[in-house]
Design goal:
The chain is built from seven helices and ten strands. It is an alpha/beta fold and 229 residues long. The protein has a domain of 66 residues. It has a six-stranded mixed beta sheet with strand order 6-7-8-3-9-10, with helices on both faces. The chain has a four-stranded antiparallel beta sheet with strand order 2-1-4-5, covered by helices on one side. It binds adenosine-5'-diphosphate.
Length: 229
């Protein structure tokens, strides 16, 4: 089974506007690590928003993790979002909660029990390399550490897919690479990862499948390791 299937998906935001996405077809296998690149305005965010169902396509078919979006009812969207973790450039942490509480909160809102939270939070903080920082406040952390809290929060619910939209955009090269290494590790544990980045060095070093979007279309789709810069 495919993890992500897009069949001739278009998105037109308003009457008379040119399409933000123009008949995009795309297959992503389970456990793949896919990098999406393209200049500003190319359509990358639109693609991610279609996957998280923040936006609906104007036409075309989307199936993610066996869920056909045409058949998805509004009340099933929270279930879908539990299966898709998201991480953004600006971390979106709760400033008045500790590291532990930030991750725990993502579990509380979906009704996870206290005992499971006490078990899960340290585990995911360990995965992202933040063991021992449970009691810190976001303000006391570096940008890279904050982003890793955001990743811990995103993976706490064990999503099938992790979408990381420009997660290194606010980080210096060292912290950026720390974050990318965490994404790689999560991918090795079995989660499909979709990463958008403007950072050419990351693209070159990762040697993964690279999809280039240009003007709402897939301009190229290079297999893992084939990227030569
Ligand atoms: P990227 O993420 O690659 O920068 P976007 O998906 O944000 O590209 O944008 C693709 C195109 O769609 C751009 O022309 C942008 O102006 C337009 N667009 C994005 N979001 C909206 C929106 N909510 N309403 C109208 N136009 C939008």
């Amino acid at each position: 089974m495919l993890m992500i299937l897009l069949d001739r998906v278009s998105k037109v935001y308003g009457k008379g506007m040119s399409p933000a996405l123009d008949r995009i077809s795309l297959h992503v296998e389970p456990r793949e690590f896919v990098i999406v690149v393209g200049s500003s305005g190319a359509g990358k965010s639109t693609l991610l928003k279609l996957l998280t169902r923040e936006e609906k396509p104007t036409s075309g078919k989307i199936i993610v993790g066996g869920i056909d979006y045409d058949k998805l009812k509004d009340k099933e969207i929270p279930y879908l979002r539990r299966r898709i973790g998201t991480v953004f450039q600006d971390f979106k942490l709760l400033p008045n909660k500790t590291v532990f509480e930030n991750v725990a909160f993502a579990l509380e809102i979906v009704g996870t029990g206290k005992q499971e939270i006490r078990y899960t939070v340290p585990r995911v903080l360990d995965i992202v390399g933040l063991k021992g920082k449970e009691k810190r406040m976001p303000m006391e952390l570096s940008g890279g550490e904050r982003q890793r809290v955001a990743i811990a929060r995103a993976i706490a619910r064990q999503p099938k897919i992790l979408i990381a939209d420009e997660p290194t955009g606010n980080l210096d090269p060292k912290h950026a690479w720390d974050v990318v290494k965490v994404l790689q590790k999560i991918n090795e544990y079995g989660t499909t990862v979709l990463l958008t980045t403007h950072n050419q060095e990351i693209v070159n070093k990762l040697k993964r499948r690279v999809i280039t979007i240009n003007d709402g279309k897939i301009a190229s789709d290079r297999a893992q390791g084939a990227y030569k810069g």
